[in-house]
Amino acid sequence: MIRFATLFIFVLMLTGAWAQISTNALLTLANTNGTTMSLSISNSGNQTWVIQSSSNLTSWTTVETLKVFNGSYQRSYTNSAGGNLYYRANFNATNQTIADTTTNALGLPATNYNYSNPALPVEFYVNPILAEDNMPVNGPNADPTTDADATLGRVLFYDKRLSTNQTISCASCHQQVYGFSDPRQFSVGYNGSLGTRNAMGLSNARWYQRRHFFWDERANTLEDQTLMPIQNPIEMGMTLDALTNRLAAEPFYTNLFALAFGSPVITTNGISKALAQFVRSIVTTQSKYDLGLTNNFTNFTDSENLGRLIFFGLTNFPPNPPANCSGCHASDNFVPGPAVNNNGLEYPYVDLGVGGITGNTNQYGLFKVPSLRNIALTAPYMHDGRFTNLAQVVAFYSSGVVFNPNLSPPLVAHGGTSALRLNLTADQQVALVAFLNTLTDTNLVTNPQLSDPFNYGH
């Protein structure tokens, strides 16, 4: 391994090397099969580089002039002529000539994806799910989803420019492959600091009757929520003035804003609306459970059907009283109605939840209940990420619920004097986990209209 201190690197074709170029760039060159060299650049400054090759270290030929978009770039180069071949990546501060245009920086389709009129099951258009829809379609704060707005929101969601040092995006803590959640117990902010709560999944965030966001519901709307992590000193550390100025310098943002809002002017209101519309477009309706709704669950295994009966409190056998998980995870979106809940995680309260915001002691330990859709993808679980898998979650409800003054009614037993613990058998616990797994929509993790739109070179 060779380290170079200069502003360029070169490497023999049959070796690998890496070099720290500056405080914001890291280049890695590696031989992959004897004739192919892979190049990776991590560069939060989004700079332009010139890649050159040589057989003698004297005469250099430009292979490619490339621009790093959104912090990283990957490319492979093949030596088809045989013999030794050297590569170098050359940075010139006066030759930053490639613009961040929509065509260069992004891989957007010629026609926008359909965000405004998703194909939803019929039950989404009637109560109770209809009442859960938090999209503001009327009034002065109306924000109905349009294809152009959500496209802009998709770009913003994945753009690391939203953090002060251009290293963290919304997608850093809400990753598509994990149901738009974070597999870490606590997310890592722009300066390496850890948050204090687990990043909840965003599947079907459009449907939540209380319309508030964050675990403690401190954001009154999704539009309000989208700007808060950007300004949080741990998460992204930006000011809104700095953000609008930074985005205004990017030609593709002025273009996308003009398409979305009719003006190239970058505004915080436009940023919040576009991000909210993209998040509301993270819709999942193609799980095994959704198919089961159409065929009386004949597609379920015996264990999955047993878990379904337990979940909805439809059993005529122990546990007694019957489990009824749907008391807090109702409708086919598996979210609560007007209630915010305490599920008996602990007492005394370590995290005051909603009560920490309102100061109301009757709300201590109450937290937003996210949708259970794609729950199998979003480990770890609970607001503090204390459970690493669904088996631990089910075991908690079976035997670990802690009685406290604010425990939610579906979990209160014996006239309000103790916690309802489900006392599930081992087979019943396995069945309940099996049912929860049927809520997974595998299309979500590969859906291109929800994926990272940036051009990373490969």
Q: What is the CA-CA span between the terminal residues?
A: 25 Å
Topology, number of strands: 10
Largest sheet: 4 strands, antiparallel
Number of domains: 3
Round the Cα radius of gyration to an integer and report it. Answer: 26 Å
Helix content: 10-25%
Molecular structure report:
- With 458 residues, the protein is of the alpha+beta class.
- The chain has 3 domains: 83 residues, Immunoglobulin-like (Sandwich); 189 residues, Cytochrome Bc1 Complex, Chain D, domain 2 (Orthogonal Bundle), CATH 1.10.760.10; 153 residues, Cytochrome Bc1 Complex, Chain D, domain 2, CATH 1.10.760.
- Helix content is 24%, strand content 12%.
- Strands 1-8-5-6 form a 4-stranded antiparallel sheet, with no helix packed on it.
- β5 and β6 form a beta hairpin.
- α3 runs antiparallel to α7, α3 packs across α8 and α12 packs across α13.
- It starts with 7 loop residues before the first strand and ends in a 21-residue tail after the last helix.
